[in-house]
Amino acid sequence: MSTDLLPDEACGLRERKKRETRRALNLAALDLVEEKGFGAVTTEEIAARAGVSARTFFNYFPSKEAAVIGTTSEELESYAAALQEDVPGEPPLESLRRILSGMLAPASVDRGLRAKRRRILLGEPSLAPALVGNNIRIENALTAALERRLGVKPGATLEPRLTVALAIAAVRACIEHQQNGGHGRLERNIDAAFERIAAGLR
């Protein structure tokens, strides 16, 4: 019997290896910055720590700042595609809640990794511009996707950007609430926050 992978299996294996490499690079970047400080770390060192070539590093991240933050273009595209899809009976705000909550799902997020990333970002002021830029990229990608879903021209109305901005702010507030000793489970707090936003938007 042949041991060749079927097309779907091969695709699944490639995607899993890509995710593993991306995570290894993100972890390597965080570990090195924590050990040496951001200014002393190079992309070559991050690649070597992750066990890949410097060329491979740039297939995943455009800079060491991006490797520390961890968001990739592929992830942004997948979030945007999920929002652009018009799910029957699901208003845009609910789609945003589902997508943003999925980004934080325990099955897909290492809580220790997220805590380390936050600690490093707070402790490295030089990363602030890159972090702001990353947040803007996410907001712009989701806004453009929502505009396409609603069938409006880019910038023709404030509603898509306002909806996305409110959704992102709600998730950020819930995370900060929990990380600063606030009560309640993150997922439940996010649901409650979106219910309040939805009531206000109506």
Automatic annotation (TrEMBL):
What are the top taxonomic ranks of the organism? Bacteria, Bacillati, Actinomycetota, Actinomycetes, Micrococcales
Q: Which ranges of the sequence are annotated as binding DNA? A: 42-61
Keyword Transcription regulation present in the record's keywords: the answer is yes
The protein depicted here goes by the name TetR family transcriptional regulator
Keyword list (alphabetical) reads:
DNA-binding, Transcription, Transcription regulation
Q: Does the keyword DNA-binding apply?
A: yes
User: What PANTHER family has UniProt attached to this entry?
Assistant: HTH-TYPE TRANSCRIPTIONAL REGULATOR RUTR, MYCOFACTOCIN BIOSYNTHESIS TRANSCRIPTIONAL REGULATOR MFTR-RELATED
Name the source's superkingdom: Bacteria
Q: Which organism is it from?
A: Terrabacter terrae
PROSITE patterns from the UniProt entry: HTH_TETR_1, HTH_TETR_2
Q: Entry's InterPro entries?
A: DNA-bd_HTH_TetR-type_CS (IPR023772), Homeodomain-like_sf (IPR009057), HTH-type_TetR-like_transc_reg (IPR050109), HTH_TetR (IPR001647), MftR_C (IPR041347)
Q: Where does the HTH tetR-type domain lie?
A: 19-79
